[in-house]
Amino acid sequence: MPPRKDPDGSVSVPCFYGAELRYKREEAGLTLEQLVEGSYRGVSFLSQIERGERRMPEDLARHVDQKLGTDGFFERRCEDARKARQVGHPSYYADIPEMEKAAATIEDWAPYVVPGLLQTEPYVRELIRAVKPWEPAAAADKTVRARLARARLWQQEERPTYWAILRESLIRNPLLPPAQMADQLEHIAEVMHSTQSVLQILPETTVGHPLMTGGLAKIMTFADAPPVVWVEADFSGEALDFPPLVAAYRKSYDRLRAAALPPEASLAMIEDAARGYRNEAQKRN
């Protein structure tokens, strides 16, 4: 068994919070199972909090304070960790960036928009303008910075294995002007090549397919925690770790993968579309 990797409390407020939680738990001589006993939460959930990957809910913070005799420390500070994690992200999404960085594998299904980990700055800004035209400029800037910061995981020494499935309409119906759309597609191709990641395109001719009735879905697995499925709509999202639901999404994603074009053909389609938009932009100039 590999040595346990202790959380680095200097990385962020949630990581500091989680490192302190582990320190206090081990100081009290309690295992994860013993600390979580009597709460409504699972061992894997508490473990992810200790690693700075999940937000501490107030009910669990109160339970932890009572078990550890920490005089309300974790309940008082769980709001600080939540706010730190939330900067630039909606509250319901606050846990996901840290989970992405800690994941062993990430599989994205993107029927309507380019996955966040692959978006360029112009794409993020145009997406905000289209979906939230009322968003103040300062708030939009925070969202852009937070979205682009997620892509730093591509520079991690131990980055997740990544697989994405996109609908063909994402490249055929451009959200951006030709030059910027070419930049976006070239960026996707560059990330796929440089990280040995996999991308597939689901053809527009494929009308019926698994996961066709929902929005964005992301399956994440971890080296030392159960898998999580993230599902998202316009203004809400939910992390699912109930094993039967995770298994259903796993089965659906695998069937969707089988319905999509092979990776080589999909990447060639991305690169061909990028050249087409680049030529169109040059003709306009």
From TrEMBL:
Residues 21-55 form the HTH cro/C1-type domain. InterPro entries: Cro/C1-type_HTH, DUF5753, Lambda_DNA-bd_dom_sf. Gene3D superfamilies: lambda repressor-like DNA-binding domains. Pfam families: DUF5753 (PF19054), HTH_31 (PF13560). This is Helix-turn-helix transcriptional regulator.
